[in-house]
Give the backbone structure.
Amino acid sequence: MEFQYFKLEIYIPETHFRALQKALQQVDAGHIGNYDSCLSYSPVTGTWRPLAGTNPYIGAQDEISEEPELKVEVCCKAEKLEETIAAIKAVHPYEEPVINVISLYQTGI
């Protein structure tokens, strides 16, 4: 089965949310029917430990960090997936941003 839509889950500091929102709009992510810029976000707490050789945006090597973040959820068409991921990475401050890509059978029903 070939999927036409994907849902992306993006974890990002709240300080970068508006830049992400604009980047997603520019690549037409979140376009559902006669609406665009559709996404949802909710506060979460992220934890991580930068390992040797990293250059963390927040935190220090070998120490566990815990920070508030936003979980942003947005849909995009399969043909726009790579462009959307590139747009996210262009505005995301993390060295290794978490971008989960989930296949959707249908959307906007």
About this structure: The chain has two helices and four strands. The mean pLDDT is 95.
